[in-house]
Amino acid sequence: MTVLSPPPPAVAxxxxxxxxxxxxxxxPPRAERAGFAFAGVALCLLAALLLGFAANLTIVGHxxxxxxxxxxxxxxxxxxxxxxxPVGQQTYEGELLEPGAPVALLRIPTLGLKEVVAEGTTSGxxxxxxxxxxxxxxxxxAGTSVIMGRQWAYGSPFNDLHQLPPxxxxxxxxxxxxxxxxxxxxxxxxxxxxxxLEEGEGRLTLITAEGGPYTPSGTLRVDAELTSDVMPAxxxxxxxxxxxxxxxxxxxxxxxxxxxxxxSQGLLMxxxxxxxxxxxxxxxxxWIVGVPVLAAFGLAVSGAAARLLPNLL
Length: 313
Hints:
The protein is α+β, with helices and mostly antiparallel strands. The chain folds into two domains: 41-56 and 256-306; 62-89 and 97-251, Sortase (Sortase, Chain: A, Beta Barrel). 32% of the residues lie in helices and 20% in strands. It contains four helices and eight strands, in the order H-H-E-E-E-E-E-E-E-E-H-H. It has an eight-stranded mixed β-barrel with strand order 1-2-3-4-7-8-6-5. The chain is elongated.
């Protein structure tokens, strides 16, 4: 009887020499990552400012003008109905009119123009519509009344003034009634001045910019002679010429620098938070939240900066 011997034990193959695990690839240097972050912040700021300027001088500015005009029209109608609309430089209670207060309704049927005129001619006031220069009498009264308006931005109310032929009728309604004027001339810089007014005569001068879109090269003036009865003028506390440079034709509003600085700080903080959120949340979550915030701050900064531009732009 043959006895089977057990098979020899299996010999384990020799262990392969263990190779070291590959080290993870090193990312970009920290300084380079910081540079990318700052570049992203700069791009966010630039995009917000450029888009904000474009929107403020076009679509958003026109919408703001339309809203402000409707509000001012409702307020002027209320004051006219109550008999408390201003007839001079003071309110019905005897206080000096605040800049931006509605004082008249300007209508030029030939152009289809119907605009509420506010008190003051700074760049900020003219964003809402035409403005009455505060050191001149109100329309309908003796003397030369001056109304300024923008050519292209914020509703472009005076964009077509150069088309007015002599003899065109202009109507202006104030707290004293409706005054009627007749256009006598359209003047540009260097043209002869109109003849001096006799005592008891009235004139209306409309002023806007002249030149290409958003690139003013000078000023344009439309003179119109009062054809209706002269209305009485109340005492004028401030003497003529007391307004500052910001209320003159093509003046800029230097006081807006503080608003620009404060809104810029908010925009910078929003851009930094957006980049931080991008690294923590991801792309789409960040843009869904960040874009509206950046757009709002961009509009605010550019709106304040627009007051530094010429008031007739």
